[in-house]
Amino acid sequence: MPTLFSDTFARFRGRIDLPVRATSIPDVLACEPDAVFLATPHEASVELARGLMHAKPGLVVLDLSAAFRLNDAAQYPRHYGFEHPHADMLSHAAYGLPELFRDRVAKADLIAVPGCYPTSAILPLAPLVKAGAVATRPDGRPVRPIIDSTSGVSGAGRGLNLRSLFCEVHQQPYNVLKHRHQPEIDAYAGLATLFTPHLGPFERGILSTIHVELAPGWDDVKVRGTWSAAYGREPFVRLCPPGVWPSVADVRGTNFCDIACAVDAAWNHLIIASAIDNLVKGAAGQAVQCMNARFGLPETAGLLSGARE
Questions:
Q1: pLDDT tier for residue 167 given thresholds of 50, 70 and 90
Q2: Exposure of 14 by Cβ count < 10 A (0-12 exposed, 13-18 middle, 19+ buried)?
Q3: pLDDT level of residue 154 (50, 70, 90 thresholds)
Q4: Which position has the higher pLDDT, 140 or 308?
Q5: CATH code for the part of the protein at 33-113+283-294
Q6: Angle at 72 between CA 147 and CA 209, to 5 degrees
Q7: What is the per-residue pLDDT for 121?
């Protein structure tokens, strides 16, 4: 008897009982796919993407690893522990955040699905950076936003790890000043940031709190107006009303990113909170959204069922 997908993820029993089996590039191509999703380790994704796209020009590859997220191949040894063997592919990959890079996603055959932490930080920050909301230092550089993000235990994967055991997991920072998502956040938010990840004692979701020193002339009304202009028609970005703050419970099992803010006018200090489900908007749901955008389908297709998986 083959192992079924629902054997590993029992909540899909009776709905997705497909066999899980070892495969190869010829096996995949024999199915005549229009698109292939890669949920494989970074180094495996590099070779699989290259092999698939070489064997079938025009095939769309959506990669959920970090193999193609960074444009600079020199960053891979430091942050991901390997020399990128196909650096020529990096410039051809579209960063799969449709809210910000829809035109590129719609034309790309190689789509790098963003990381979970970066998604929660880039969505609120990027429009503000572009609009000039961030204060500058005397040397002309932007004041670095501070990003504190807490992820549920599922962000560490399903492997056995002492820190993520039920009796061991607690609120705790990790990989301080050396998390691999830092260069991704900086590249697509549009400025240098200071990012600290935390492990939280809950199953899934990411809550990010972001501190920004505002440029003169900015207040909460202008911040909200900038977000409304950027995301007012976006189906998966929800701007919370004043005084309402995001919760990981409110985005669980959804492809939404909820965003809220407050401004300390005396210090011109902006506090942002954003929440996503790291397994949906931070991974699989965003990949489906990118596929929809690439093939001209409604981006909400398959993503608004309301089911909490």
A1: confident
A2: exposed
A3: confident
A4: 140
A5: 3.40.50.720
A6: 5
A7: 99
* Residue linked to tokens 């929809």: 292
Instruction: Report yes or no on whether pTM surpasses 0.90.
Output: yes
Query: b or e along 38-64 (b: 16 or more beta carbons within 10 Å of the residue's beta carbon)?
Result: bebebbebbebbbbbbeebeebbbbbb
Q: Which residues are catalytic?
A: 116
Q: Is the pLDDT of residue 307 over 60?
A: no
Start-to-end Cα distance in the chain: 26
For CATH 3.40.50.720, the residue range(s) in the chain are 33-113+283-294
CA distances from 175 to 28, 151, 172, 204, 299 (A): 37, 13, 10, 19, 34
| CA gap 219, 255 in Å, rounded | 29
All CATH 3.30.360.10 domain ranges of the chain, comma separated, are 116-276
* From the candidate CATH numbers 3.20.20.70, 3.30.360.10, 3.40.50.300, 3.40.1190.20, the one assigned to the domain spanning 116-276: 3.30.360.10
For residues 108-126, give the mean pLDDT: 99
